[in-house]
Amino acid sequence: MSPKKHKGMRTGFTTGACAAAAARAATLGLLEGRVPDSVRCDLPSGQPVDFAVTDGRCDELQSHAVVIKDAGDDPDQTDGAHLTADVRLLPGEPGRLSLIGGLGVGTVTMPGLGLEVGGPAINPVPRCNIADNVRAAAGALLDDGGLEIGISVPGGEEIAKKTLNPRLGILGGISILGTSGIVHPYSTASFRATLVQGIQVAAAQGQDTVVLTTGRRTEKFAMRQLPHLSPVCFVQMGDFLRAAFDTLVEVAIDKVVIGGMVGKLTKMAQGATMTHAGRGAVDTGLLAELAADIGAPSDTCSAIREAKTARYAAERMQTLGLLGVFHQALAERVVQTLTGRYPRKFQLRVLVCDLDGNKIAEAASGTDR
Question: What is the pLDDT of residues 300-350, one digit of tens each?
Fold first, then answer.
């Protein structure tokens, strides 16, 4: 089965689905004496999908199979990765399945991920999916012995350097992920999951502060401003403001710093819980109000109100020499809005930078001000 079309773009398959398919193919190799060139694998949803299998080989005791990940049209760092399964017999251990991580699969070094520290970074749903597919293929093999399933990803250590795995304490390789088995192009689900995990790991490490940023540029800015904090404290929330704050409440971290620029901060100030540009327009009326409050001329305020972007307001304020005080007012409005939504939950600090990563303003609530 080819990945389905979704909103005009081709879907792909997760590392977890590919690992399960490789494991099933290798198990069939032990059972039948030959690794198949393709294998039908059940996704976590139960949907059967055919995967091409490469580098299949086996003998009486062990078998090897590879499924090359196709991420569809998603710009996934693991696209083209060789998800590899080596399955070997465990004589005298009927029914037992042992899942281990090999070369290129990360090792968990920090608590907070719901995985055993020191174990392989294979998430719970892929673990179950791999086991289910192996049991379905093994049949009578498990009557007399068990199976050890080794999952590896050649080159996974280099791929992982381009991900947030090291920040989460996953070292030496990639994670085996996927709750549905399907990768949707430009899906926000994986980013949201990484955000939540990042906050959970910070809490599990005993950190009392999390720094939320909207992207890499604002994260670098915040790290320069707060060099005393551990890297695990810095979490890119992207557009997921509500998910970030709800998770902070769940893990009981009450010191929060936001690093941002005028556009996203305006969305936060106006009360948006998802700050993506496609989820509603920037409230330029709010920016015009702030500009009026700091003494900007009425014609400037009118122009800001009619503008389409928050950046326009910043440019007009810079021309008037009011850039700093304008961003200060904006930061204070962000604090006001968020502390109103989460009363008595957080000590909140907002750091504002320009497009070059230079600090413009800062505001804080309560004792942090």
Answer: 999 999 988 888 999 999 999 999 999 999 999 999 999 999 998 999 999
Three state DSSP letters for the chain = CCCCEECCEECEECHHHHHHHHHHHHHHHHHHCCCCCEEEEECCCCCEEEEECEEEEECCCEEEEEEECCCCCCCCCCCCCEEEEEEEEEECCCCCEEEEECCEECEECCCCCCCCCCCECECHHHHHHHHHHHHHHHCCHHHHEEEEEEEECCCHHHHHCCCCHHHHCEECEECECCCCCEECCCCCHHHHHHHHHHHHHHHHCCCCEEEEECCHHHHHHHHHHCCCCCHHHEEECCCCHHHHHHHHHHHCCCEEEEEECHHHHHHHHCCCCCCCHHHCCCCHHHHHHHHHHCCCCHHHHHHHHHCCCHHHHHHHHHHCCCHHHHHHHHHHHHHHHHHHHCCCCCEEEEEEECCCCCEEEEEECHHHC
| One domain, residues 345 and 220 | yes
Q: Residue 126 in contact with residue 16, Cβ under 8 Å?
A: yes
The number of domains in the chain is 2
Tokens read off for 164: 């947030």
- What is the rounded (10 degree) CA torsion for 99, 165, 208, 228? 140
Kindly tell me if the per-residue pLDDT of 41 is higher than 90: yes
Same domain, 272 and 356: yes
In this structure, the answer to whether residues 172 and 221 fall within a common structural domain is no
Instruction: Please report which confidence band the pLDDT of residue 51 belongs to, taking 50, 70 and 90 as the band edges.
Output: very high
Asked if 65 and 206 sit in the same domain, the reply is no
Domain that holds residue 357: 192-368
Query: Do the Cβ atoms of 322 and 296 come closer than 8 Å?
Result: yes
Q: 172-204: string of b/e by CB count within 10 Å (b at 16+)?
A: bbbbbbbbbbbbbbeeeebbbebbbbbbbbbbb
Q: Does one domain contain both 216 and 348?
A: yes
Token pair for 39: 């294998």
Q: How far is CA 213 from CA 70, 299, 334, 340, in A?
A: 30, 33, 14, 20
The model carries a pTM of 0.68
Whether 219 and 262 share a structural domain:
yes
